[in-house]
Structure formats: structure tokens, C-alpha cells
């Protein structure tokens, strides 16, 4: 790995892909904030590669426990102790930080406009396109499955939603849990179940934009279909699933007690480290019968921002790192060092991890979109994420019908989201 990395850096320097060093003065020590406490060793590999190209710049990775990250970062920014560089949530959360003056605008950063599409920059840019973050990490969603158990039961990877439910029934009849997912950690139902399924039933990016533009009501037939899909899965979740945590449900899959797990690509390193005694892979959410187009939730998860209050010499050094993030060697290094976290730039790359490549292969021929609630629907109260999460949980528990859950989504958003207010009351 070290030899390959060194060769990449040398070649990149010769080709001029790494920006020339302009901060060759004294030593500069930067800090980087993040919510990824699991990636300390992996990020050190990446930061060491940057240090090899810029020996006078050292970056210390200082992550915060994920649930505490937003509040901790805000406290640091308000108190003047924030890191020089820090991970940015996509859409509303980072937009608010920029509007409050905490983020440096990056419209003139070399490589940013050229190497990322407008859609890739959008989660960390203003409505008129001014970027305030470098797109860093995308994550994919799909269905993990136990290949050995599928073979034992004579099952094929389902090609339609109806086939998926039929496969789940056969697995249940054989005495296994069809899906390991559980609602003890409620966010998992929102992010890796509901928002994993949603693009397939609302029509991906185009369908989601129709809701944001006021062309659709949030309780239309498509929205109801998402909640109905969650209801379809409810009988196939583990017994007592409401008490099982994220970790518990992962273990059900890893121990071979459950055949499938709706999850995200970020779980690849954990599943590999657990080394289950069966072969596993992933497939995408299949489309319902009669629908040719299938969709994958390929979510723009993290950008990298620059503290607007950082000292000038730190800003200069930090911008060199941000510029380096726009290069092809960074994209390849990041994709290989953090399997399951995918670069967002235009550069074609080849990854070495077979499970990461399996997730990327799901994108072929599929419509790609981010999680439904992220764009604009987090900007008010009650927010779309909470409404979707609560509706999905209620449908699983049997306390709401899919139509009632969609009605609650529409009524909640109509309290503040102007496009939703175009829908007649009770519609």
C-alpha cells in the first residue's frame, strides 16, 4: 500500500496534478473536525499522503462522537475554538453555518468547479451556485444478503419488489428472519429503510423535485406507496424488533440468523472486520412489477469546509488541502482507504475492495438520488426527516395506515414548507 501510494504521489506531481506548494515557509499545524470516529486510522493514511506532498503542513484529525458533532461544532465556532477544516453535513445544516458567516466561500478554489458537477456541488453551495464546501464522501444504500443461505434455500436475487416479498416469505417459512432491520434505534428506520426504498416509489430525483416544486402533494399515491412498502416489510422483521439496536440487528445478519439487511455502504468495513463464516454481497432495491426504471439512494453525505475565522496562514495551507481533494489521486486514495465511502468527483477510478465495487455496480443503469428528506425538508419544523421517520415507525407498529402516515407528512410540512401549502386541505 505504501509503495503504491508513493508511486501515485510521484506520478501525480510529475503530471502536475497536485497543486504546487506555495506555503513553503514555516511549519503549519492544522486541525480537522469530523463525526467519523471510526475512521481515525484510515484518515491518517490520507493525511500522511498529503503531508508527503506538503512536508511543512501537518493536519491532525480530531473527530467527535456522531450524535454530538453538530452541537459540538457549533459551540466551537461560536467560541472561536473550531478546527481549521471540518466535515460538513449536506444541505440545510451546512447552509446555515455558511449563512451565519462561519464558512469560507470557495468559489475561486482551483479544481472545484472543473472536477465536480453542479449536482455534486449543490449540497454544499448556495442557491445561486456559490460553493462553501468541497464534496467529499457519498454513501450508497442497498440490501446486504447472505449468499450461502440464499443458495441453501434455492433463492435467486429478486428482480422486482413483489419477488423480494416472495423471497422474504420463503426465508421466514424456512425458520430464518428475512430482514435483520429493527427500530430500537429509530434513525435506522428513517435512513436505511424508508429513504433506501423511497426513490424507487417516488421516481428518483425527478419525482423528489416534483414534491419540492409543489407539483405533488406529500400524501399522493407515490408517497403512500413508500409507506406501503415499509408496511410490506414489517411482517418480515425480527420478533421484538422494536427493542433491537442497530448493533443488535447487524449481529443478527452476521450470525446468519437473518438473510438480508437493508443497509448502507458505510457498514462494509465493520462487516469485513467481523468476518462472518458465509459469503455476502449486496443488491439494489428492486422496482415494482411494470416499472422498468430502478433507483439507488446514492447520498451526498459529507463535504469539507474551511473555518472562516482561521488565521490567514492556516487558510492558505487549508486551501492547498482542499485543492488536493479535487484531484484524481485523492479520489482513488480515499475510495480505497475508506471502502464504502465513495468519491464524488468526475474522475474515473477503480477501487480495490470487492464489496465497495459491488455497491458501485448497483449504480449502473439506475437512477441516483439523495435521501428524500435532506434537500429543503430539514429547514423548518416539524422537519421532513422526523415526519418520515415517525410515519414509518407507526406503520411498522400498526398504529397508522400508509395513507395516514402520508397525510401526517403532508400536514406537518404544510405548516411551514410553502410548496406543500399548495395542496388543498384534506387532499
Fold blueprint:
Layout: H1 2-15, E1 28-34, H2 40-53, E2 57-63, H3 69-79, E3 85-89, H4 92-99, H5 112-115, H6 118-121, E4 134-146, H7 147-152, H8 161-173, E5 177-179, H9 186-202, H10 204-212, H11 221-233, H12 246-254, E6 258-264, H13 268-274, E7 280-283, E8 295-306, H14 312-324, H15 328-337, H16 354-361, E9 367-369, H17 384-397, H18 402-413
Parallel strand pairs: 1-2, 1-3, 5-6, 8-9
Antiparallel strand pairs: 3-8, 4-6, 4-7, 4-8
In CATH terms, the superfamily of the largest domain is Periplasmic binding protein-like II
Total tally of structural domains? 2
Portion in strands:
5-15%
Radius of gyration: 22 Å
- Intertermini distance: 59 Å
Share of helix among residues?
A: 40-55%
CATH class type of the largest domain: Alpha Beta
User: Mean pLDDT score, rounded?
Assistant: 93
Order of helices and strands: HEHEHEHHHEHHEHHHHEHEEHHHEHH
Number of H/I helices: 18
> Structural class of the helix and strand makeup?
alpha/beta
Taking the sheet with the most strands, its summary is: 9 strands, mixed
Q: How would you sum up the global shape?
A: globular
CATH fold-level label of the largest domain: D-Maltodextrin-Binding Protein, domain 2
By DSSP, the count of extended strands is 9
CATH architectural name of the largest domain: 3-Layer(aba) Sandwich
- Kindly report the oligomeric state of this protein: single chain
Low-confidence stretches: 1-24
Amino acid at each position: 500500500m505504501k509503495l503504491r501510494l508513493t508511486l501515485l504521489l510521484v506520478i501525480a506531481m510529475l503530471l502536475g496534478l497536485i497543486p504546487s506548494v506555495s506555503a513553503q515557509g514555516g511549519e503549519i499545524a492544522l486541525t480537522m473536525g469530523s463525526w467519523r470516529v471510526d475512521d481515525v486510522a484510515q484518515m491518517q493514511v490520507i493525511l500522511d499522503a498529503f503531508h508527503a506532498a506538503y512536508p511543512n503542513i501537518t493536519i491532525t484529525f480530531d473527530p467527535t462522537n456522531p450524535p454530538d458533532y453538530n452541537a459540538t461544532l457549533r459551540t466551537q465556532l461560536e467560541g472561536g475554538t473550531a478546527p481549521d477544516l471540518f466535515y460538513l453535513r449536506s444541505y440545510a445544516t451546512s447552509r446555515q453555518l455558511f449563512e451565519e458567516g462561519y464558512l469560507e466561500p470557495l468559489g475561486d478554489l482551483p479544481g472545484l468547479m472543473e472536477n465536480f458537477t453542479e449536482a455534486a456541488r449543490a449540497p454544499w453551495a448556495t442557491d445561486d451556485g456559490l460553493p462553501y464546501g468541497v464534496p467529499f464522501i457519498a454513501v450508497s444504500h442497498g440490501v446486504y444478503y447472505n449468499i450461502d443461505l440464499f443458495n441453501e434455500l434455492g433463492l435467486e436475487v429478486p428482480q422486482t419488489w413483489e419477488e423480494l416479498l416472495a423471497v422474504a416469505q420463503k426465508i421466514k417459512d424456512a425458520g430464518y428472519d428475512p430482514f435483520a432491520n429493527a427500530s430500537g434505534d429509530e434513525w435506522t428506520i428513517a435512513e436505511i429503510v424508508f429513504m433506501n426504498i423511497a426513490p424507487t416509489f417516488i421516481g428518483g430525483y425527478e419525482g423528489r423535485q416534483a414534491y419540492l416544486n409543489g407539483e405533488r402533494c406529500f400524501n399522493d399515491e407515490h408517497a403512500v406507496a413508500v409507506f406501503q412498502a415499509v408496511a410490506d416489510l414489517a411482517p418480515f422483521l425480527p420478533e421484538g424488533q422494536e427493542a433491537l439496536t442497530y448493533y443488535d440487528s447487524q449481529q443478527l445478519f452476521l450470525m446468519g440468523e437473518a438473510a438480508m439487511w437493508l443497509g448502507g455502504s458505510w457498514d462494509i468495513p465493520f462487516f469485513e472486520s467481523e468476518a462472518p463464516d458465509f459469503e455476502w454481497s449486496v443488491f439494489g432495491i428492486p422496482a415494482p412489477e411494470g416499472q422498468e426504471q430502478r433507483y439507488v439512494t446514492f447520498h451526498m453525505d459529507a463535504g469539507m469546509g474551511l473555518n472562516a475565522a482561521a488565521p490567514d496562514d492556516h487558510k492558505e495551507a487549508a486551501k492547498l488541502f482542499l485543492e488536493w481533494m479535487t484531484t484524481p489521486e485523492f479520489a482513488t486514495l480515499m475510495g480505497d482507504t475508506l471502502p464504502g465511502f465513495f468519491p464524488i468527483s468526475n474522475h474515473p477510478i477503480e477501487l480495490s475492495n470487492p464489496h465497495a465495487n459491488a455497491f458501485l455496480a448497483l449504480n449502473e443503469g439506475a437512477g441516483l438520488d439523495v435521501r428524500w428528506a435532506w434537500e429543503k425538508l430539514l429547514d423548518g419544523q416539524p422537519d421532513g426527516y422526523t415526519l418520515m421517520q415517525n410515519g414509518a415507525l407507526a406503520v411498522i407498529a400498526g398504529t397508522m395506515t400508509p395513507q395516514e402516515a402520508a397525510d401526517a407528512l403532508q400536514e406537518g410540512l404544510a405548516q411551514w414548507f410553502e410548496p406543500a401549502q399548495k395542496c388543498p386541505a384534506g387532499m
